[in-house]
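I have been asked to look over a protein record a colleague put together. Alongside the sequence sits a line of tokens, each denoting a local backbone shape. Please read both lines and tell me whether the tokens look consistent with the sequence. I do not need a full report, just your reasoning and any doubts. I have pasted the whole thing underneath without changing anything.
>
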Amino acid sequence: MRTFRMPPTAMVLGGVVSVQFGGALASNLIDRIGAAGTVSLRLALAVPVLLLIARPSLRKRTRRDLLAVLAFGTVLGLMNLSFYLSLERLPLGVAVTIEFIGPLGLAAAMSRRRRDLIAVAAAGLGVVLVNGHELSAVDWLGVGFAALAGLLWAGYILLSAETGRRFAQLDGLALSMVVATALTVPAGFATAGAAELLHGHVLLAGFAIAMLSSVLPYSLETLALRTMRPAVFGILMSLEPAVAATAGFLVLHQRLAAVQLAGMVCVVAASIAITRTPRSEAPDI
């Protein structure tokens, strides 16, 4: 009897689609319970599933192991909160495009190639274009939250690698999600209220977002990276802004102007250019 095995490329693309459509659903929920309520619900509902899958243990763990989990979880929680705060003010495709500057900047800084610095400059132009408005009409607070999420995403990449070296499989991620949940849940209850967060429809939507934005993409990416070259993984991840714009259009009916789409193309092209840099010269995003 043959067992079905999903190709690693399909796993990564599935994860990209999953997380962006999860973001589209989160945008709808944010309108009801706010950014802090949505991110706390997403993390709190994802944690039990990840703990059940990973079944991590803290036995024989060093102080540095625990500090790595604490740092990773803190950055993970703040990254998601910042991104959801940007979704309160910006279209999904715009927020993801701005956020993408974080990992691009990290990759360029670590490669130190002139070509990659030029690519980041092109991505910066893309961010300017993707706002698509007169300066007076730009929601600078939303842009700031998206940029902060991108900066935290760069930290997430570094801490994820460190945690991955110290913990097997999904163990480090599962434990870090516990930290992220503990950090965000108090803010969620304070802003949204227990009655609203524990409403049946809200819990159902939160569970769907947890599966689409956390459990499914993290699991698929982890499995894919066992056999996929990191450079290929990075190129596929570069499609996230375009997928986000598609999800925003299909789920939220958010239409982007031609100049915004041009800005998105600049960022995607810059990401692919940086990712194609030899592995010895740049990290994967």
Remarks:
- The chain has one domain: 8-275.
- Residues 8-275 form one domain.
